[in-house]
Each structure stands twice: as C-alpha cells, then as structure tokens.
Specification:
alpha/beta; helicase activity; seven-stranded parallel sheet; six-stranded parallel sheet; 678 residues; 28 helices; EC 5.6.2.4; binds adenosine-5'-triphosphate
C-alpha cells in the first residue's frame, strides 16, 4: 500500500465491502472514469459513498486528495465518521476535505480572499439579507402603503432565484412574481444597490459564496491549483444541485476523471432554490464515458411500503425499488378522519398504540408538508404528555435573541457590518427604523468618533442605553482573545434581552449555550460564518438536549426528514391544498416537486406507514376559531395507489351509533355557582 502515513486496514474495508450487494459493490469498486450512481430511496447511497471513500484510502489514495460534497452538515459528518469506522483509521478520514457546498465554498473563498479583492470574508445569512435589503428599500421608492409592494422577503427571493437559476431578475419577476411587474425597475435598482453595498462592506451572502467559488474555479490560475488539489470529487444528492453548483463540480472535474455523483431524480425537492434533477440526467450525457450504476434494492422498507412508493414514484430514471427484507410486512394504512382535531387525536392514539406494541417514540415520526400543519397535533401531544421535538420550520438561529448575540459578534469582527449594527440599534428603547438606519451608517462608516457621534445623533431617550452598549462593545476588537470578546458581547446584549423579551429568562439559556460554544473557538470569524452557512436547527445541537434519557417523538417537515428513516411514519394531512401545497396547485413544475416530496415522505418508513386524510380542514392552519371547510384527499393518492393501502375510518367519521346523547350524564359540571341563587 502506498500513501505512507495512512494506516487503513484491509480487514476493516473487506468487512465493509462484504455487506454490499452486487450493484453497490460495482459502484464502490469503479475506477476513475466518471460515475453516476442513480440510487432510489433507501438503497444505501450513503453506504456506497462512504465505502468508496474507504476503498480509495485502502488503495493508497491520500485523504487530502479526496473532496466530498454534501448538502447538509449532518450528512458530511455522518459520512466522514462512517468512512473512519470502515477504514479503521479515524485520523485519515479527518483529513478528507468534506462538507456542504457552502462550507467548502467558504473555505475556498476565505483562502483566496485577496484574489477577490476582499480583506476578510464576512458571511451574512438569509435573515441578514432581509435586514440589509430592508435598510435600502426606502431609497428606491419601495416604502409606503398606497399600492401593494413586494415584501423584502419576496425581493430577496427574486435575487436568489435569479442567481441560482442564472436568469435575469426581470425575467424571474415576469415568470414567477408577475404581480410585482410594475415595480420591476425599482426592484432591479434596489438589487444593484444591495450588491454594491455588500461589496463596499465586505459582506457575502450564501449565493455570493457560490458565485465567488465558481469564479475562482473558472480562473485559469486558481482553478488549475484547485483542480490539482483533488483527484477524487464525490458528490451526494446531486439531484439537488443548482447551476452554480454544477459549474463548480464540472469546473473541478472537467473531464470527469475521479468524479462520482450520487442522486435520485424522484427525490429532487429544492427546485424553489434553483435545483434541478435534470442536472443528474445531463451529467450522464455530458461525459460520453460515464458509467451509470442503478441501485434498486431497498434496505429500509417492507415490500408493501415500496409497492406504494413505486406506484407514486415520478422521475425519468424509472427506478423500481425491491425490498431486501424477507418478511412481507403490513400494507400502508390510509386513515380517513373527520377533521383536524380528529386527525390529531387519531395520530396520538396510534402513536401510543404503536408504543405499547414495542415501537418506542424515538422510532416514530410525524411528517408534514408545512410546519404549521401540526398545530392541533402539538396541543394533543402536550395534553397527553407525549414528548416531542420538532424539526424544520423556524430554526434556532432564526430566533431573534440568538441573532442579537450573533450580530454583536459580527460588529466586533467587522465594524463595517451595517446590518448587524442596524439590528442591535433597533433593540434599543426609542430607536425606530429611521434613526437606526442613520445611526448604523455612522457606526459602519467607522470614523474615529463614531461612538460619540452615534450617541449624539440618537434620540434623547435612547442615549444612555446606547452609550452603555457601545462602551461595552468598544472595549474589545477583533484582536481580543475569543473568550473576552464573547463575554463583552454577552454583557452588551444582556440588557437588550431583558428590555425586549418579556420571556427573557427562558431565552437566557440559549444565549449561554451559544456564548459557551463560541468562547471555546479559536477562530470566532469562522464560527460566526459557519452559523450563517449551515445553521443548527434546534437548541439541542448546541448543548445537551433536555431530558436526554426521555423517549421522544419526532415531528418534522418532509424537507427536514430527507435522508432519515423511522420504524413508523405518520404522514399528516395528505389533502389537496396541504400536500400538494395550495401554492403549487396552479403550476405543473410546482406540482411535480410536490409529488417528489410525497415520494420522499413515503420512503422514510421502515415497517409501518400511516397516511392521514381528514375530510374537513380549518381555513387557517393555526387559528382555533377558524371555520372548517371540506377537504379533498391528495391527488397523489390515486385509485391504483389506494388499492395498495389498508383503509381505516375513524369512529368520528363512521356513522353515529343510534344513542340518545341528550340523556348521557354530563362529565363536566357547570353548577358550581348555582348556590349563589339559593
Ligand atoms: N448492503 C446493505 N446491507 C444492509 N443494509 C444496508 C445496505 N446498504 C444500506 N443499508 C441500510 O439501508 C438503509 C438506507 O441506507 P441509506 O440511508 O444509505 O440510504 P439512502 O440511499 O441514502 O436513502 P435515502 O435516499 O432514502 O435517504 C440504512 O439503514 C442502511 O444501513
């Protein structure tokens, strides 16, 4: 074996390879020609990628010569740690360059900042983007309430779609936001301003990271050096790449030598971010010597679940999943409920029944199209004392108080970061949006007396508080040791927390968690950028989750459930308007994406799959006073699909038994005050 320092054991790798099926093995043993692995759900693509990495190491490839690109931090670290186990050399696996597209782009961009004319790289996250655009929109006639104006979120979305699909913003507006056409010129002007402001202040949003990385890869000099760095480029979830990511991958491997991509066109669920499953299919044509390996043996689910998945599976690759498991298993259940309350009660009943039958809560999940769909269920779970964690929807780092603390780190690291100043300023008493804008400009412009100038320019009532914040923050700078810097920020944010959030005691622990995590870093700038690039989703990612010894149920959006599996999956609200979402009903492209989401949801279940269909739904997902209207079952539950399911109708839907309800004794008494009239 060549490669000197790497001590990969042949025995460990041989053991790992022994468990693979012939198609998996073909992919793992493939040489250096371009390889496309079309892998249906649950066919072990993670195992194949990690085994391929382990096999390369065993063959003597130096770990530094391998680049592994994934879509989530979780996937990257899971793959690298599995590869470490497989190859029996954890340190070798750690030397592999790996991470999400954005994280790897960030590393490349930070390393070549000078080539891009940047002194430092400050990454801003999607919420900062909103704040910055908000800060500028007034200068483009986009403030006011006389006519319907696109929201800042919509404007940010237009910018991102334009970049991710490489389409002029004007065309994006015409095709996807036609109602905003009248303001197209102003929006385009605002977006140019936004771009220039970011450049002036040295800020990069997540799209800029990909743009900059793509430009570096395309640069004759830097690109050649990057290509020389990695002989092997492996990409997971290739169906989710957008054009910029395709350009980066193709730029790193122009002739496809050493390139492996894995993907499933039926699981492409990020079209709204500019991704296209078409890229996977195009790659097969792009390299004439590409090898296509199809993985169709499913190691996760029972055949009846796969029969349903195969029935609804969209996509051009036409993969048909066959169960590896010998035992037949039960058919998926179609549970018809009366309304959202009945649905919530029924799900809770069935969760507890499965629990009694031996399926712990952590082996069960309730999946939903949109986070708000579980409002009634969450109440029901609380009432019954069923502990749960919810994934998807609002992430931990999007919570306001957490963002306040991160903003304070940012202004120290980059005092020109106007957006973060703006955020901190608006947290002060008596500082409205207009004064915050003006003060942020003073502080970000960085004059010698900026602190005094800002305090003097602040509304009188705000001066004392502002002076105190600025003096706490002014005591440190980017060269201060990280723990002291973090402590100063934590002290500066503390009074803002108490003043702005009535439930501040609850939030304090979150800030302590981050402060603790941040204080342990050697490089705070990277830590802050990482939070923007790949935010953690739950507070539990920071610190020990509460009640670790407790068993808890998972509630998750389908997007957040991608790549995961549970013994029992409860699919909530399979109704038209919910799944597919009503936003997608009028667009064939949107509907196709919803169909793929449905497929992703079904294929998360190992043993039991319950699909719930209420026949009435509230007009508003969370309002308890909302009216109920008739709801149709999802169009994806076609006749042939239903024929593969067991039908269950809840008691609330079944015809009422003929009992005289009026004579039943009341369970809840209301006569406590009757005495008053004795
Ligand atoms: N050769 C194998 N023998 C036994 N089990 C396997 C094999 N390959 C994969 N598995 C198991 O099958 C399950 C699915 O594997 P994995 O998560 O890698 O699939 P996937 O293709 O990434 O799925 P999805 O695309 O649905 O997320 C896992 O529990 C994994 O351990």
């Amino acid at each position: 074996m060549s490669g000197g320092l790497v001590t990969v054991t042949c025995v460990a790798v041989c053991d790992a390879l022994a468990g693979l099926d012939p198609a998996q093995l073909e992919a793992v043993e493939h040489g250096d020609g371009p390889l496309v692995v079309a892998a249906g759900a649950g066919t072990g693509k993670t195992r194949v990628l990690t085994a391929r990495v382990a096999r390369l190491l065993e063959a003597g490839v130096m770990p530094e010569r391998i680049l592994l690109l994934t879509f989530t931090r979780r996937a990257a670290s899971a793959m690298l740690s599995r590869a470490a186990v497989m190859c029996g050399d954890a340190r070798a696996a750690q030397r592999i360059a790996g991470g999400t597209f954005h994280a790897v782009a960030h590393r490349i961009v930070a390393e070549h900042a000078q080539h891009l004319g940047l002194a430092d790289v400050t990454v801003i996250d999607p919420d900062d983007v909103i704040d910055l655009i908000d800060l500028l929109r007034g200068e483009h006639g986009l403030d006011g309430t006389e006519v319907r104006l696109p929201t800042t979120r919509t404007i940010a979305e237009i910018a991102s779609r334009a970049i991710n699909t490489v389409t002029p913003a004007r065309v994006v507006i015409e095709e996807q936001f036609p109602w905003a056409l009248e303001q197209a010129d102003q929006v385009a002007g605002l977006l140019r301003h936004y771009r220039d402001r970011k450049r002036e202040r040295g800020l990069l949003d997540l799209d800029d990271l990909l743009i900059a990385c793509r430009a570096l890869v395309a640069d004759p000099d830097v690109g050649a050096r990057l290509r020389a760095r990695w002989d092997w480029v492996l990409v997971d979830e290739y169906q989710d790449v957008n054009q910029l990511q395709v350009d980066i991958v193709r730029g790193l491997s122009p002739d496809g030598r050493g390139l492996t991509v894995v993907g499933d066109d039926a699981q492409a669920i990020y079209a709204f971010r500019g991704a296209s499953a078409g890229h996977l299919l195009e790659l097969i044509d792009a390299y004439p010597d590409a090898t296509l390996v199809r993985l169709e043996r499913n190691f996760r689910s029972t055949q009846p679940i796969l029969d349903l998945a195969n029935q609804v599976r969209p996509g051009a690759l036409r993969l048909r999943l066959v169960a590896d498991r010998p035992q037949p298993g039960a058919r998926p259940t179609l549970v018809s409920c009366r309304n959202a309350d009945d649905e919530a009660r029924t799900i809770a009943d069935r969760i507890l029944a499965a629990h009694v039958d031996g399926t712990p809560l952590h082996s069960q999940a309730v999946l939903m199209r949109t986070g708000s769909h579980s409002a009634q269920l969450e109440v029901e779970l609380k009432v019954r004392g069923i502990p749960f964690h919810k994934f998807g929807g609002i992430g931990y780092l999007q919570t306001s108080h957490v963002r306040d603390l991160l903003a304070s780190f940012r202004v120290i690291l980059n005092p020109a970061d106007e957006v973060s100043w703006y955020r901190l300023l608006t947290r002060h008493r008596a500082v409205g949006k207009t004064s915050a804008r003006a003060l942020a400009r003073i502080l970000a412009d960085g004059g010698v007396d900026r602190t005094t100038d800002a305090v003097a320019a602040a509304p009188a009532k705000a001066r004392t508080g502002l002076a105190s914040t600025l003096s706490l923050l002014g005591a440190v700078d980017a060269t201060t040791a990280v723990p002291q810097l973090v402590e100063a920020c934590r002290n500066a944010v503390d009074p803002l927390l108490r003043a702005n959030y009535p439930d501040w005691h609850r939030r304090v622990t979150d800030l302590d968690g981050i402060a603790q995590a941040a204080a342990g870093q050697t490089d705070l700038r990277t830590f802050v950028s990482e939070q923007a690039i790949d935010p953690v989703n739950v507070a539990g990612d920071w610190a020990k989750p509460p009640h670790l010894d407790e068993d808890w149920l998972t509630l998750s959006t389908i997007h957040s459930a991608k790549g995961l599996e549970w013994d029992t999956v409860h699919l909530l609200r399979a109704n038209d308007g919910a799944m597919p979402s009503d936003m997608a009903l009028s667009s064939p492209v949107g509907l196709a994406e919803e169909e793929r989401l449905f497929y992703v949801a079904l294929t998360r279940a190992r043993d039991t799959l319950d699909v719930y269909v209420p026949s009435q739904l509230p007009t508003h997902p969370t309002a308890f006073t909302a009216k109920h209207v008739t709801a149709k079952p999802s169009r994806f539950l076609t006749e042939p699909a239903r024929a593969l399911m067991e039908s269950v109708i809840t008691a609330a839907v079944s015809p009422e038994p003929a009992v005289n309800r009026a004579v039943a004794a009341p369970r809840v008494r209301t006569d406590a005050f009757d005495e008053l009239f004795a």
